[in-house]
């Protein structure tokens, strides 16, 4: 009975959306996915794309550690743009599902490879700034505006592809191969050429430095043999899984907030984008603000916010404070994502960095696939999602406090474990990279 009631409410909501936006062509309506025998395909549509992302993170991550950051990044971006356009002109739902799977593959590659690629070309103090201006808040705002300007889902898909084209051109014609990856592969001359091009693009004078030999290389197989290295990756997996399942669960609930759909999404987007800039200012003003502080402080506030929301939904379900605290919790949940990306890139050796990031993103996709379950539980008990986010966050906070390594300021080319696997060699900036447990 509950299942049927949920189905009716969902169908009514989709019908109301069609009326609110003046009968714009909706994907579900065009392929008869709102009601009837094909209604299940609407949720299957998202699952297919998430499955593609899940596979793409692992495949593209391994390929970039083997073949290089640039060629794999170009491949992922190119295929994503091509299949986004094909998605917009797909004549049947079968072809549409196929194109969305390949879009998912490309998204997985972009999340893992392009992030690692760009991070390896930045100075340690610039990594936080990258997260400030290129983040989900900015992307969410762009997607919202595109969908508002192009209400037809087909034209919106093509518009998204065109919007991504400048990024592909920059990677092809401006970015050189990652000097860090080239150094790791022993291609010293190409590494120097890459460094000179980066200096030229940045308008800086290139300064030759002594090239240190690469030592203690670790393969992906050794990840499972070295207990200390494996423990660090497991901590990252827990961080990424928790951030994903909690973040997607809250995002799924955001569409239920009363008001104008697009204005609500713009509000969330602008708040997230502004909070990222504020984080960079704070990080620059307080050099001792560590990656551990970032993750654990943000995770603690997330737990507090969603515990309060759990109580509010029970005692005052229509309170304006639900929206306010939801916004605050979402903002700090985004900060945990910043910690996930920064710690993931900074804590692993170069020759397995993208592969490890791929495995972390794989765990995040599992969380994303499970997230709709939390939204479904709300039909049985209204604050289910909020309480689950709080509980998972508390477990993640404990894991982070005990075992997350500190990585702020590390030189990525010099992230290597010593022979015992209990510490990471210090770089010229004397950055200590030990967890609380390893220091004792």
From TrEMBL:
A Pfam family it matches: Sugar_tr
Cell compartments where the protein resides: Membrane
InterPro entries (alphabetical): MFS_dom (IPR020846), MFS_sugar_transport-like (IPR005828), MFS_trans_sf (IPR036259), Sugar_transporter_CS (IPR005829)
PROSITE patterns with a match to the protein in the record: MFS, SUGAR_TRANSPORT_2
Record-annotated membrane-spanning stretches: 39-60, 72-90, 102-123, 156-175, 233-250, 262-282, 294-314, 386-404
Main localization, broad class: membrane
Domain Major facilitator superfamily (MFS) profile: from-to ranges: 1-408
Alphabetically ordered keywords of this record: Membrane, Transmembrane, Transmembrane helix
Keyword match DNA damage: no
Database matches in SUPFAM superfamilies: MFS general substrate transporter
One cellular component term from this protein's GO annotations in UniProt: membrane
An example molecular function term from Gene Ontology annotations: transmembrane transporter activity
Membrane-protein topology: Multi-pass membrane protein
Name of the protein: Major facilitator superfamily (MFS) profile domain-containing protein
Organism lineage: Eukaryota, Metazoa, Ecdysozoa, Nematoda, Chromadorea
